[in-house]
Design goal:
With 254 residues, the chain is α/β, with parallel strands linked by helices. The protein contains seven helices and 14 strands. The protein folds into two domains: 125 residues, no CATH class; 101 residues, no CATH class. Helix 3 crosses helix 4. It is elongated. The N terminus is likely disordered.
Length: 254
């Protein structure tokens, strides 16, 4: 935890009567909840404040453990780059307080959230390198006559493979061909749209009504998705005709 976060929380995070949790939802937000239970001598105003600060604390912890890519977490980048550290701290301070509710048992439940994508104030905007050389997507090895199916997106079923969330995950073939990566999109596209949506179902508005559905065969380095060589070529062919990768219309199911 960085100094600015420590200063905010140190005086409050002392009681066994407070709990919190955090998660990343399919809408592209990191959300955290702080829960504080009644304790003698603690006023409702104090409980409300502590529940919010607990939520912010767990949000910061969740952010630090998140993968940026297969080689680095947010914490790694914060530790080695003061500029990124400052940007992440600013993003955390700007996280939205979604709700603060007093429950019938007297406890306070606060929820805060930070967008993964959507602009310079998002987490992606804080950690990604802006000045990169953008590379074209690979061309498929064999181009068939265009199918009657007009694919609207890509859905990769990764269930059962322990896929971790990353801001810039890659999709690769079994033989090692990288077919979807940050270098193909660049800063603006990635920060504004997000490279992928993580979902629990194969049905998603992001991938549209007629997605190409493939099954992942493995996960590499916690967050990169491996597909068969044949499926990799199908994906590249669909992208050539319908720009499904160009448009970031990619959903990873877990």
């Amino acid at each position: 935890m960085k100094k600015i976060i420590q200063m905010l929380f140190a005086v409050f995070i002392v009681s066994i009567f407070s709990f919190a949790s955090a998660n990343i939802n399919s809408g592209g937000y990191i959300e955290a909840e702080g829960i504080v239970y009644p304790e003698p001598g603690r006023s409702p105003n104090q409980m409300r404040r502590i529940s919010i600060l607990d939520a912010y604390r767990y949000l910061a912890e969740q952010v630090d453990t998140l993968y940026v890519n297969s080689a680095s977490t947010v914490k790694n980048m914060r530790d080695f780059d003061d500029v990124i550290n400052t940007k992440v701290d600013a993003a955390l301070r700007g996280a939205e307080v979604v709700s603060v509710n007093r429950e019938p048992d007297g406890s306070f439940h606060a929820k805060v959230r930070l967008p993964l994508y959507g602009g310079s104030q998002s987490l992606a905007g804080a950690v990604l390198q802006e000045n990169i050389t953008i590379e074209d997507f690979p061309e498929p090895l064999y181009v068939n006559v265009r199918s009657e199916i007009n694919y609207t997106g890509l859905v990769i079923d990764c269930r059962g493979l322990n896929l971790s969330t990353a801001i810039t995950p890659s999709i690769k073939s079994v033989s090692g061909k990288e077919i979807y990566a940050y270098k193909n999109l660049g800063y603006q596209n990635t920060v504004s749209k997000g490279m992928v949506e993580y979902s629990s179902t194969t049905t998603s508005a992001r991938a549209g009504d007629s997605p190409l559905l493939v099954k992942a065969v493995n996960i590499s380095n916690a967050c990169d998705v491996i597909v068969s060589d044949d499926d990799a070529e199908k994906i590249l062919e669909a992208n050539r005709f319908a720009n499904i990768l160009v448009n970031c219309a990619v959903v990873l199911v877990r």
